[in-house]
Amino acid sequence: MKFIESDVLKALSTVDDPDLKKDLVSLNMIKDIEIFSDTIKFTVVLTTPACPLKELIRQNCVDAIHEHMDKDLEVEVVMTSNVTTTRSSAPLLPDVKNIIAVASGKGGVGKSTVAANLAVALAREGAKVGIIDADIYGPSVPTMFNCEQEQPTVRQVNGKNVIVPLEQYGVKLISIGFLSPADSAVVWRGPMASSALKQFIGDTDWGELDYLLIDLPPGTSDIHLTLVQTVPVTGAVIVTTPQKVALADAQRGLSMFKQPQINVPVLGIVENMAYFTPEELPDNKYYIFGKGGGLNLSEKFDVPLLGQIPIVQSIRESGDNGYPAVLKEGITQEAFTDLAETLARQVAIRNANFEQTKKVEFKV
Ligand SMILES: Nc1ncnc2c1ncn2[C@@H]1O[C@H](COP(=O)(O)OP(=O)(O)OP(=O)(O)O)[C@@H](O)[C@H]1O
């Protein structure tokens, strides 16, 4: 039987993207259809390279061709991706598809550890990733990425000086920590830190990025306001630990992004230090800080729980050694990879369902 392109599209229109709940053809995800006598070849363009459903979608496509066309056809599916965005008309950084704020209510809950490992995990999956360390109280990106001794350079683009971010483990990075020596007790005043963040956003040569993560200071500060006033932020991730005190603070952070004047979608909550696990006995879980806190918070605010990261000695060691835990095979790699994939899915869902976040304009 001779088939034409519309037969393939008709068959594939029975396959849904499980997250976006629409069929692949309506979502414009099918490209480059080729029809040979006994083979059908096409490309599926996913919404992120970090798609955990890649294999399921591929298999569903093969099954649909067999069911709706001919069960003996050879099916070749090329899986590729084009990260979605609502930011292409943004005045600043239009080539950065998604800006993701990583925030926490309390200090020391592991926000920077999560941000650094998320960035590396997304890059490992093939995404173009950058990170801005705007944590004025404890900029840790230079240490976590083992580039404390380095300095970003400046170059001219169209007659304008721009900062060239460093690059490590496939991630472009810049830190407020590069602006002052690590051992100097610089007390950053709000306005200085805010202008540094504006420079990192407006005067830095980020090029094309799929995800730009912003590691914010703990709590709610001037820096948070500067961020949402400077660029439309795709969404926020809230990092917490399971203790009551941390959860109460996380709730305040979450509420800030949800305030109608700010209105940044919360992509989800990460419960860090969710339980202790000895690396050699990964099935043993000890809930030393309490159990279920992250889940309760996510249910209360109706936002996803993106993942639970265990307390593992090597996560602390990797941070201190400048070699992110996600690069080391084992439970830490699994935990951060799963987290990155879940976050990437939430970004795609957010982009399919909501318009670009509006930049916040405060009237005084
Ligand atoms: N899951 C984990 N297991 C073991 N150690 C962890 C884990 N998460 C973070 N840590 C360690 O806890 C300490 C604090 O983490 P981190 O600096 O990421 O916190 P933070 O929330 O960014 O802090 P702040 O914003 O106050 O600077 C670090 O020494 C880090 O290595």
UniProtKB/TrEMBL annotation:
Domain of life: Bacteria
Positions of ATP binding: 105-112
GO molecular function: 4 iron, 4 sulfur cluster binding; ATP binding; ATP hydrolysis activity; ATP-dependent FeS chaperone activity; metal ion binding
Residue span(s) of domain MIP18 family-like: 6-77
Family matches, as SUPFAM superfamilies: Fe-S cluster assembly (FSCA) domain-like (SSF117916), P-loop containing nucleoside triphosphate hydrolases (SSF52540)
Coiled-coil blocks: none
Keyword set, alphabetical order: ATP-binding, Hydrolase, Iron, Iron-sulfur, Metal-binding, Nucleotide-binding
Acyltransferase found in the keyword field: no
GO biological processes: iron-sulfur cluster assembly
InterPro entries linked to this entry: FSCA_dom_sf, MIP18-like, Mrp-like_CS, Mrp/NBP35_ATP-bd, NUBPL-like, P-loop_NTPase, YlxH/NBP35
Subunit structure: Homodimer.
Entry's family note: In the N-terminal section; belongs to the MIP18 family.
Function: Binds and transfers iron-sulfur (Fe-S) clusters to target apoproteins. Can hydrolyze ATP.
Name used for this protein in its record: Iron-sulfur cluster carrier protein
Species for this entry: Fulvivirga imtechensis AK7
